[in-house]
Structure formats: structure tokens, C-alpha cells
From TrEMBL:
Keywords: Kinase, Transferase. Pfam families: PfkB (PF00294). This is Carbohydrate kinase PfkB domain-containing protein. Belongs to the carbohydrate kinase PfkB family.
């Protein structure tokens, strides 16, 4: 699958102190909903499990009848754990940040790029590819707990052999999210980051991810290449048991 770099100002990209690895760009559809909708969708509340595009579209159609907020029930923005971290560092703290990854040649892909540019994030390391951009439904209950259902099965993403030292050169930190769907990309990114002297931060993604892939996760953590690990209480409990 062919890829094109998004050409911005390369001087700006070299100044990015913190880089986020978002292998597949993701658009979040965020809505505050009542408990009854969460009871209807597969999987545990508060977790994150992948769904097909048909299931994602079905959930979005059901949101309208279970919404807690009016008149704007659904907020559609660039999403993903790493993207949100990078955006927060850029907007909230003024830290020069950039993203590494790929987005599709569709409306969602353009929305992802424009959202991040608006937040002051360097997007020159993003590759545009032919195909769809990933999407995720993020359902927030009255207590603020999030239940996420991502659809990434046919989304474009950056491949391990497409990563180069130039992507990280001059930066200080690489931020990434654990996931078996992107495991080869994660391993390649960590290897390049370490060769270029960067520190690596990793988010454990979800308690389901830790539970289902605990062995490779432990091997990655015990390698000594991850300098900082973020986990919520449920993820930490699954990890240490």
C-alpha cells in the first residue's frame, strides 16, 4: 500500500521534544449515554474490544436514543490514547509534540490531520495511504467511565519497515500504547528510539489487552527498553495479579 508523507515544515518536526506513535490514525465518536445502551453491546463495561464496521455503525445509530446530553449528542474528533496524550501536552502545557503514523485518504483522515494541526501538533511524520481511517465509539456513562469499541480491522496503518531513524531524530521521548494489533510496529519503534537515545513511555491500553496478552507484555516490560509505564488500577491488577 503506497504512502505519502504529509509535507509540513521539517524544521518544526525536528524540534518536537515528544513524539507519539499512533500506527493507525483514529477518529473518536464520543457520547454520554445511559446504562441501558452499555448493557446491549458486547464486552465488559469500561473496557475496549475491537468491533467490525457494521457493529460500530449499529452502536452509533443506537446512541441517539440513549443520549444524556442535548442538543449535540456525538462529538467527533481525532482520537486514540497516544493522540490524546500528545494533544494534551501540546495544548495544555505548550510542549512541542509530533505524531508518527498513517491516516486514510478519506474524510476521517482529513479530519484527523486538521484536528491535530489545530492543536499545534507536528504532523509531518504522518503518512497518507489509500484506504479508510480507523474509527472508535467512545461511550461515557454518568459517572465518567468510558467504554470503547474501536474498528481498526480494515484501517490503514504504518508498517514496521516504514519507520526510519529520521522519524525520531532530535526528540527526547517516544509515547506509545501497547497492543498486539500493532506489536511489530511497536517493537520496531522502540528499537529505533533506543538507537537514537530516546526514552520510551508506554500505556497499557486496557485490562482486556493486558489479560489476553500478558506474556508478550511482560517480556516487553522486562526487556528494560520501556522507561515509563502508565496503567490504571484495573490494568495494573491484571498485570501483577
Amino acid at each position: 500500500m503506497g504512502a505519502e508523507h504529509l509535507i509540513i515544515n521539517r524544521e518544526a518536526s525536528q524540534a518536537a521534544l515528544i513524539l507519539g506513535l499512533q500506527p493507525a490514525a483514529l477518529i473518536d465518536h464520543v457520547a454520554r449515554v445511559d446504562w441501558s445502551l452499555l448493557d446491549q453491546i458486547p464486552g465488559e463495561r469500561g473496557g475496549s474490544i475491537p468491533v467490525a464496521i457494521e457493529e460500530l455503525e449499529h452502536i452509533l445509530s443506537e446512541v441517539k436514543t440513549h443520549i444524556l446530553d442535548e442538543p449535540s449528542p456525538i462529538k467527533t474528533i481525532a482520537g486514540g490514547s497516544v493522540t490524546n496524550t500528545i494533544r494534551g501536552l501540546s495544548v495544555g502545557f505548550g510542549v512541542p509534540c509530533g505524531l508518527i503514523g498513517a491516516y486514510g485518504d478519506d474524510q476521517q483522515g482529513q479530519l484527523f490531520v486538521s484536528n491535530m494541526q489545530f492543536s499545534g501538533v507536528d504532523v509531518s511524520r504522518l503518512r497518507m495511504k489509500r484506504g479508510p481511517t480507523g474509527q472508535c465509539v467512545c461511550l461515557v456513562d454518568a459517572s465518567g467511565n468510558r467504554t470503547m469499541r474501536p474498528c481498526l480491522s480494515n484501517a490503514v496503518k504504518i508498517q514496521a519497515d516504514e519507520l526510519i531513524a529520521e522519524d525520531v531524530k532530535g526528540s527526547k521521548w517516544l509515547v506509545l500504547r501497547f497492543g498486539m494489533f500493532n506489536f511489530e510496529v511497536i517493537q520496531a519503534a522502540i528499537r529505533i528510539a533506543k538507537q537514537e537515545g530516546l526514552s520510551v513511555s508506554m500505556d497499557l491500553a486496557s485490562f482486556e489487552m493486558v489479560r489476553n496478552f500478558r506474556t508478550p507484555l511482560l517480556q516487553l516490560l522486562e526487556s528494560g527498553d520501556v522507561d515509563l509505564c502508565f496503567a490504571n488500577e484495573d490494568e495494573a491488577a491484571e498485570l501483577v495479579r
